[in-house]
Design goal:
This protein is an alpha+beta fold. The chain has helices spanning 10-21, 24-29, 36-49, 60-79, 82-85, 99-106, 161-178, 186-192, 206-216, 236-239, 257-266, 278-281; strands at 87-89, 137-138, 248-251, 269-273, 283-288, 298-308, 311-317, 329-333, 350-353, 374-375, 380-382, 396-397, 403-405, 411-413, 418-420, 428-430, 432-433, 438-439.
Length: 456
Amino acid sequence: MARAVGRGGLVAVALAFLLLFASPAAAAGRGMARTEAQERAAYDLWLARHGKAYNALGGEYDRRFQAFWDNLRFVDAHNARAGAHGYRLGLNRFADLTNEEFRAAYLGGAGAAADRNATATGERYRHDGVEALPEVVDWRQKGAVAPIKNQGQCGKKNKLCWAFSAVGAVEGINKIVTGELVTLSEQELVDCSKNGQNSGCNGGMMDDAFAFIAGNGGIDTDDDYPYTARDGRCDITKKARRAVSIDGFENVPRNDERSLQKAVAHQPVAVAIEAGGREFQLYESGVFTGRCGTSLDHGVVAVGYGTEDGQDYWLVRNSWGADWGEAGYIRMARNVIARAGKCGIAMEASYPVKAGPNPGPSPAPPSPSPASPVVCDRHSTCPAGSTCCCTYGVGGMCKDRATCCPASHPVCNAKARTCAKSRNSPDTVEVLLRFPAKRQRGSLIAEELVDSVFSI
């Protein structure tokens, strides 16, 4: 059975929840150390808040609770010195996963490309070390960023970040060039983009996604080709509906935060980072300065930058839903000592290139030409497809005198409304409507049709 919270325990759970989110330092000062019962009550409320349930009989509930309790103590210890760290941790939807489980389930989808095409490095955003750049950029305020999305869980692996990162960058440049924000289809990339290192739920690269979109002549909307969080068969019809196009893509000069800043000042940029640290998993708010390396395992979008309390930061759009981080975003330290940038953000940055309008809607297929009437002879015609009694001696009129049989199946069964190839033959077709031939130009009275009556 699944562990649930009873109505009678709501007050106790609410109190436990207050204890759960109280300041750790203040709680310790008041001697309010949490008991295991309080922790379990708080965990039950957390489960309800996140819509989760586990089988208590199989031991899964206890395993998840232990991970939650361990993460809670980690969050408490960190937040007791949140002022010194500059950012806070929280019990988000990953709070009952160990860090190993988190990394296995959600990361590894946008690793470093061993064969990244150096010739694709663009020069338009290379910073010369002198050029002045805006102090603050936030593409959300300019309407170039779609609402936060949630890549969810794709089977046992959820390595779809590459698709969300690429789509976010394309949505941004399309808004900048055309003035229209169009929410695009990650699912089309999952199903159809098998070029390069792209492999659906098993991971991919933003550069390869850009190459697919450019080569396909565009990408469909999310409304028309919606996200399903699973690998699927490419829908060729929807793949041909190219709502938004790009001309190509370029890479930001590698390990150069100033060039990345220049690029982000002009458009949202797809970036790869290492997101596997425990602090990143449980990030809640502030400028992230936590531990991370350069083993790139996650694709996101840099949509701005700024400075808070003297700390420069990147504004990064994630794809883990709006209940992670700062409403789905994370601010990451900028202008750090390492050339690769915080968590490797400057190592594999790229952006789509677009100069003109999107392709127009596909032309409608031509309307079929009206069917020509059947010519009986040089004097008479019948409506096209409506009769088999048009020409003399061809076909036979049934007893009801309203239907007839074609010459290939001349034996009429009026009751069954079928025409047989021969008497008692199982080879039958449906009877046809009978219309008398009409004299062309209306100058003569129509000649009588020769009626051959057949019966079974």
